[in-house]
Amino acid sequence: xxxxxxxxxxxxxxxxxxxxxxxxxxxxxxxxxxxxxxxxxxxxxxxxxxxxxxxxxxxxxxxxxxxxxxxxxxxxxxxxxxxxxxxxxxxxxxxxxxxxxxxxxxxxxxxxxxxxxxxxxxxxxxxxxxxxxxxxxxxxxxxxxxxxxxxxxxxxxxxxxxxxxxxxxxxxxxxxxxxxxxxxxxxxxxxxxxxxxxxxxxxxxxxxxxxxxxxxxxxxxxxxxxxxxxxxxxxxxxxxxxxxxxxxxxxxxxxxxxxxxxxxxxxxxxxxxxxxxxxxxxxxxxxxxxxxxxxxxxxxxxxxxxxxxxxxxxxxxxxxxxxxxxxxxxxxxxxxxxxxxxxxxxxxxxxxxxxxxxxxxxxxxxxxxxxxxxxxxxxxxxxxxxxxxx
Length: 390
Known about the structure:
Radius of gyration: 33 Å
Low-confidence stretches: 8-13, 81-89, 91-96, 241-257
Number of strands: 8
Shape: elongated
Largest sheet: 5 strands, mixed
């Protein structure tokens, strides 16, 4: 037997949780032991969960070259009314049971070997199949994609996170119904993903139902918490928040820590280090070039100005910002020269046509400014030669 493959000698979990949640907590601890233990362990185990309402069979097998790393295959068999799960199953009914009752949980270390190019498309299909599976008649076979669920675990994954993922999977299959205490445990974990947990209480409450209905098909061991944080952040930005009572110094320190985490993630992905001092915010750039910030955002949207997102703020590299300020300054200079020519009696359409012709032949802003200045100088000479009669 695999070690600790029984619930009898495990310390009783906190009161108030549903039996299924308590079993998921215990199973989360066992999964880490079974996957990353270096000891000589058996390759199979059998035990019951949720008051003997689920029979679990575990197959343990080595994965890759890393010593002590194993993958797990769980076969979950629900019981029927009036029938014990420990009773034997006739050979004739085994295929029927596999098609109608058995569920599979594949636990693998790290990330999947071949990532899907479009995982969201597959996720939509699996969500629909899972919804349909809960409404099937007993004689109808359960779709294969609905019967198989993936769980990706690393050595850094906590047993609490694994337990919550198991609760989501078992609840989606209809094997357990989380109670109020289970929901509070989820909320504590969701809020604990942030440095300011009290700020995201409302967002966590709204994200909880989405976690149970939408989370499927992970591609990496960190995808569960990433999906949770992305969902909460989206809800937070839409208004699911509470007032932030933290001081300015606390917020500044938190933003610094968030940037440090983002820098570490960039380095992990092999990208270059990003120094915040090399960037300008949109308001700062708008102030430098005496423009409305909305005009800067329009340039970014059109693609004529490149911006990068640092944290939740768009920023412009300083070199690119200098070039943008120079361009804006030239355009403002052209505008002032056009006004000056117009005040000297030159027709506005004639000025506009001259600028259009210069741009059509590839004239730069500097060339246009030079031509307009020459035109102004020429107009002043004409005014001196032929003074207006009063």
